[in-house]
Specification:
Length: 196
């Protein structure tokens, strides 16, 4: 089975219902979502199943949801069949609240890093923020796509922050605070709003 088609050799790729330049905002957005998914896969290889069964279950579900997000962004038919709903956003919010109760109280900004899994989750978090920014750019062009994708990415970056902190806490690796940070988190970082 050949995986190459040569149809993209001139700088275009297929959407569901059209073709587009490979550097179009829509392609950039779902390509970045694919990048997030790959780093989540890497993080999963760094999490010990006995210590992180809940995170591994979360991340597997998230990988499937990211495929749904990418598929929804790629569907430009007149009558698209979108897969994403509000339910995964609500699940992420619940999990964020649960996870943020586990690690030590947070008062200041922390530096990305710690255990290998936490470092990878932080990478996935920052790439998720880029994907979110790209959906904002896509929206400004007037392109249509389900807005739940943007909300999901916003919440996912918060989840990945919480998961990275839990990965460090369970591994016995402390988070390192940004040394010039003031006290920026209310309630020790326990509030539902962990990001913007």
């Amino acid at each position: 089975m050949n995986i190459y088609t040569r149809t993209g050799d001139k700088g275009q790729t297929s959407l569901i219902g059209a073709r587009a330049d490979k550097d179009a905002p829509r392609i950039e957005a779902y390509g970045t979502i694919d990048e997030v998914n790959s780093f989540i896969g890497k993080a999963m290889t760094e999490l010990e199943p006995d210590l992180y069964p809940d995170l591994l279950a979360d991340l597997e579900a998230i990988q499937n949801e990211l495929f749904d997000c990418g598929g929804d962004l790629a569907d430009v038919r007149k009558e698209p069949r979108f897969k994403m709903t509000e339910e995964p956003v609500e699940v992420l919010e619940k999990r964020i609240d649960e996870l943020m109760d586990e690690p030590p109280l947070l008062e200041r900004f922390i530096l990305p890093g710690g255990s290998p899994a936490a470092a990878t989750l932080h990478i996935a978090r920052t790439i998720t923020r880029r994907a979110e920014r790209q959906t904002v750019t896509l929206q400004k062009t007037g392109e249509k796509f389900p807005q739940v994708v943007q909300r999901y990415l916003n919440r996912l970056s918060d989840y990945l922050f919480a998961a990275a902190r839990v990965a460090n806490a369970r591994a016995g690796v402390p988070d390192h605070e940004y040394v010039r940070s003031g006290k920026v988190f209310k309630n020790g970082g326990r509030s539902k709003k962990t990001g913007e």
